[in-house]
Amino acid sequence: MKILVINTGSSSLKYQLIDTMNEAVLAKGNCDRIGIENSFIKHTKMGSDAVVIEKDMANHKVAIQQVLNVLTDKDIGVISNMSEIAAVGHRVVHGGERFHDSVIIDDEVMKALRECIELAPLHNPPNIIGIEACKEVMPNTPMVAVFDTAFHQTMPKHAYLYALPYEIYEKYGVRKYGFHGTSHKYVANRAAEILGKSIEDLNIITCHLGNGASICAVRKGKSVETSMGFTPLAGLAMGTRCGTIDPAVISYLMDKEKMSVKDINDYLNKKSGVLGISGVSSDFRDIEAAADEGNERASLAIEIFCYRVKKYIGEYAAVMDGVDLLIFTAGIGENNPLVRKKVLSGMDYMGIDVDWEKNEVKGKELDISAPGSKVKTMVIPTNEELAIARETLKLLK
Description:
This protein has 14 helices and 14 strands. By secondary structure, the chain is an alpha/beta fold. It has two domains: 2-147, Nucleotidyltransferase, domain 5 (2-Layer Sandwich); 181-384, ATPase, nucleotide binding domain (Nucleotidyltransferase, domain 5, 2-Layer Sandwich). The longest helix has 24 residues, at 296-319. It is globular and about 60 Å long. The protein starts with a strand and ends with a helix. The relative contact order is 0.11. It is an enzyme of class 2 (transferase). Its cofactor is Mg(2+); Mn(2+).
């Protein structure tokens, strides 16, 4: 069975076609600059070089059709016709409290997704556009929504409620939701599988460290705490997001800098984090290079990022009454030995002992623990697309 996985942004669309018989990626790519001049699709048939096709894509419907065109193309395609696609799995950022798991999309689900727009105004609208575009082009193909928030719906109430008047939660649903759930769930289960242990016997801390970053406490296979909150702005200092700050800073800055609500929202989401601290970049490769050349602010940005990761690890070990397994994933977590070393150094008091030679690994599954370490530490590349394909297959069955 072949499943098409779609991840839609406001002006982009990423896709993978996965054969669930052997979980092989047959083709992948992305449509960029949708609705903007000079739009193009970058398509890769596995085993072949990437092909870039300049194509006017006025909207997401045109982009979806272009994806189907390249997938069925006689030279660069991998299927003879679109009827070979058994289903489409869509990444949806926010499912609110309504969705505790993935769902087959119907009219009621679409209505609920629209109701969640006010909880994720930047993310859910393009997700919905992608679903509607697919339904229009592929009306007889089953569609599944896989939510970033669903995995975290097992958090206890004392973990997800804010200390605001309770009526605010009842009226508006203001609470911690958490994100990156598909990734946290995938790497936790994958690590347990590699170790040959039941996930129900493990306390796991998963560190999804990329331009957006979050940490999750997974007790017996269920999320019990996570660092992102009502929106993906909370928690760690990230590429351009400030992470958790004193909320009084917001009104103070709005007054001092004469900022509107939109201004402060952009400031905290797009101009802060390690970009704001370093003044160099939101990309850790650029920041590390600047730090190596003696840029003090770049060095400080790295220190702040690593300090907060370490702080959350200690906090979540306390929440679960101990930890058995620590996982690093996503762009920085998988590929940055320096960040892992700064986070993990001096944590032997927790039973975390690392083989620093093994820690030099990039982008590969590996147990980097030293022999005899009480807590296992692993690098596990995330695979959200495969996780979405698995969820889609499970629902079809």
